[in-house]
Amino acid sequence: MRWEVEVLPVREARGADAPRSAEPSADAPCSGSVESRVYLLDGQLDAELVSRIAAELLTDPVVETFRIRPGNLPDGEPASAELPPFTVTILPKPGVMDPVAQSVEAAIQDLGFPPVRVRTGRRFAGPPRKSPQELRAWALEELANEAVEEVHPGPLPPEVWLSEPPAAPVQVRRVALDEADDAELLRISREGQLSLSLAEMRAIQEYFRVLGREPTDVELETLAQTWSEHCSHKTLKGAIADERKPDQLLYRNLLKETIFYATQEIRRQLGPDDWCVSVFADNAGIVRFAEGMHVCFKVETHNHPSAIEPYGGANTGLGGVIRDVLGTGLGGRPICNTDVFCFAPPDYPAEQIPAGVLPPRRIQQGVVAGVRDYGNRMGIPTLNGAICYHPRYLANPLVFCGTVGLVPAGKEFKRVESGDLIVAVGGRTGRDGIHGATFSSAELTHQSEQLSGGAVQIGNAITEKKLLDVLLQARDRGLYRAITDCGAGGFSSAVGEMGAAVGAEVHLDRPPLKYAGLTYCEIWISEAQERMVLAVPPDSWPELQRLCEAEDVEATVLGTFVASGKLKLFYQGVQVADLDMRFLHEGRPPVVRKVSFLEGTGDLTPAARQMGGMTSPAHQTARLTSPARPAMLDHKQMLVRLLGSWNVCSKETVIRQYDHEVQGGTVIKPLVGATLDGPGDAAVITPLLGSERGVAVGCGINPYYGDLDPYWMAASVIDEAIRNVVAVGADPSRVALLDNFCWGNTERPEVLGSLVRAAEACRDVALAYRTPFISGKDSLNNEFKSDKVHLVIPPTLLISALGQVPDVRQCVTMDLKTPGNYLFVIGKTEAEFGGSHFHLLTGQEGGIVPRVDLELAPRIFAAVHQAIRHGWLRACHDLSEGGLAVAVAEMAFAGGWGAVVFLDAVPLAETARTLPHPQQLLTALYAESNTRFLCEVDPEHAAALEHHLELLGVPYGQVGWVTEEPRLRIYDREEPKHELLLDADLAELKDAWQRPLRQL
Amino acid sequence: MAVVRVLILRAPGANCDLETAFAYEKAGAVAERVHVNRLKENPRLLDQYQVLTIPGGFTYGDDVAAGRILAVQMRTYLSDALERFRDQGKLILGICNGFQALLKAGLLVPPAPEGVPATLAINEPPGFVDRWVRLRAEPGKCPFLQGYAVWEAPIAHGEGRFVCASPEVYNRLAQSGQIVLRYVNEAGEVGPYPANPNGSQGNVAGICDGTGLILGMMPHPERHILPTQHPQWTRRGLAEEGDGLRLFRNAVQFFQKW
Question: pTM value?
Answer without folding.
Answer: 0.93
